[in-house]
Amino acid sequence: MCQYLEASAAASRSSCGYHRAEYGALMAMEGYRGFLGLLVSALLVGFLSVIFTLIWVLHYREGLGWDGTALEFNWHPVLVVTGFVFIQGIAIIVYRLPWTWKCSKLLMKSIHAGLNAVAAILAIISLVAVFDFHNARNIPNMYSLHSWVGLTAVILYILQLLLGFFVFLLPWAPLSLRALLMPIHVYSGLLVFGTVIATVLMGVTEKLIFALKNPAYSTFPPEGVFTNTLGLLILVFGALIFWIVTRPQWKRPKEPNSVLLQPNGGAPEGMEGSMAMNFGNMDKSDSELNSEAAARKRNITLDEAGQRSTM
Amino acid sequence: MCQYLEASAAASRSSCGYHRAEYGALMAMEGYRGFLGLLVSALLVGFLSVIFTLIWVLHYREGLGWDGTALEFNWHPVLVVTGFVFIQGIAIIVYRLPWTWKCSKLLMKSIHAGLNAVAAILAIISLVAVFDFHNARNIPNMYSLHSWVGLTAVILYILQLLLGFFVFLLPWAPLSLRALLMPIHVYSGLLVFGTVIATVLMGVTEKLIFALKNPAYSTFPPEGVFTNTLGLLILVFGALIFWIVTRPQWKRPKEPNSVLLQPNGGAPEGMEGSMAMNFGNMDKSDSELNSEAAARKRNITLDEAGQRSTM
Q: How far apart are CA B186 and CA A266, in angstroms?
């Protein structure tokens, strides 16, 4: 979808294509190597977390199945780490990939929403797995802090997804509403992501205390050490995602010679190109301001919206 | 220290005093009421977390003491929630209090560092309590994910405190080093704070599973429900602190008529007044830039430094 096209005629550009010169400009992104290094690290650590979770349930635990036994429970950590941690983490930073900066905003929003929708579905299936397991074994549901915080996170995540879909992806929400909700959308997205990681660490703690009896967790059995390491990996993954998503220099840069790449697809998407010339990656469709007076306020809000316009 | 002085002569101002007009300007801070509401909420929820922790250990658990028994262990949650959560949270937002914006930066740094130092001391004593308890009862140390993440957080917090002290509080670090380290300082401060909250949630989980046997945690005993609620309060406290500290409109505003309030106390502190006129709460002593060329880069870096200059 995002090939590096070398066609010279502007007319032949796709909404996601590049001139060689533009590709060269990307390479000059401030701290591009640092970004790539951290991105690769995040992908590696996230991928490793998924692998560690699979090794945990397949090697140290009972394996996977869907029969109401521990085999079904084991889908819970696998789906949570794969969807709710790894895929959500990637969804959070997808706007920061410099080779997507010339893609249409609608495409990027669809990818962001799509990844989050996949993560939400996996999170919901992971809940079904653990409720099924509890019910089959007559274990009460929803008594632990892990379950309270985890269910809250899933509900907030689904609300966030619906809000994002109706307000930012569909074209009908007024600009003022988008401007109002964007900081909340970004904040609550990162808050839920952090809460999910905290919940995973609680879940690992719970499961190891319940499962490791002989030898006990406190005697440093290999499974305990291995799964503690999984917990650290997930924490490091979260830390990398938070660093990547909060660096202002890794936003789409202002481009003095930028042109309106997207043929106008109708308001408000069509406004993006011209806004990008003025305000970096400021997206008018998401960040149009109310008519406050003070210049300082306007500047700050524009900076903020620009910095945060990862939706 | 920060009284609202009404003296009219500029010469009579303390480094932390206000003219009536300046006090009026603070009231016009963008979203001042919202800020106050969230600040009071954060203080309330944080205070409630400490009270809940005390009720937990004094009413539901064995109480407090320093004798190697559970009484000594109980200092662990009390000191962690009081110092490592509540006081650290306040230390994080102390630069955002608008009535401190005219105080000297050195004073605010000292308060920030002082609060963090108190939190670090309480965190260290809380570790001594739990190690003492384990050793007296022959319970192994450092086997759980809670202990791995928690000790990492304490070590990072102490390193962060030392880095802050030597680089930002003492006057000798070169400006370029401060500019380089400030974003890392802010990021790692918030990362450690979030990690501490995750660790507390793991600790609550661990303790409730270990302690609630008859009736078991899974039967919804009052202590389980009460302490789960404590966990939620701590999470909400963290969420409020994160919201407050990431709102750009609650930074010290640019003041067109601002004057150099602090009599020059020697470089680099004395530079602040004039920098404030140009870059809002940009603090030259912390954020002086290297001599990069690109205007965009400069703007972004200044914005970032201004936005982040909570040290």
A: 41
Helices (H) and strands (E) in chain B, counts: 12, 0
Q: What is the pLDDT of residues A129-170, one digit of tens each?
A: 999 999 999 999 999 999 999 999 999 999 999 999 999 999
Q: Fold for domain A36-249+271-308? A: Four Helix Bundle (Hemerythrin (Met), subunit A) (1.20.120)
- Taking the alpha carbons at both ends of chain A, their separation in whole angstroms is 19
Better-scored residue on pLDDT, A39 or A286: A39
User: Does residue A188 sit in helix, strand or coil?
Assistant: helix
Partners of residue B198 in chain A, C-beta under 8 Å = 194, 197-198, 201-202, 235
* Cα angle for residues B116, B118, B120 (degrees, 5° grid): 70
φ and ψ of B247, to 5 deg: -90, 115
ipTM of the modeled complex: 0.81
Question: Could you tell me if B192 lies within 8 Å of chain A, comparing CB atoms?
Answer: no
Average pLDDT, chain A: 80
- φ and ψ at residue A101, rounded to 5 degrees: -70, -20
Q: Which residue's entry shows tokens 């780490």?
A: A81
Domain segments of chain B as ranges: 30-251
DSSP state letter for A15: T
The counts of H helices and E strands in chain A are 12, 0
Return the SS3 of B208.
helix
> Which residues is B213 bridged to in the sheet?
B216
- Domain spanning B30-251, CATH architecture: Up-down Bundle (1.20)
Give chain B positions within 8 Å (CB) of A243.
187
CB of B224 within 8 Å of a chain A CB? The answer is yes
Average pLDDT for residues A278-297, to the nearest whole number?
Answer: 34
Least confident of A29-43, A240-254, B57-71, B222-236: A240-254
Model confidence pLDDT, tens digit, residues B204-214? 999 999 999 99
DSSP A93-155: HGGG-GGGTTS-HHHHHHHHHHHHHHHHHHHHHHHHHHHHHHHHTTPPSS-SHHHHHHHHHHH
Contacts of B293 (CB under 8 A, 6+ apart): none
B158: left (phi over 0), alpha (psi -120 to 50) or beta: alpha
- In the stretch 242-281 of chain B, residues with CB closer than 8 A to chain A read 242-243, 246-249, 251, 253-254, 280
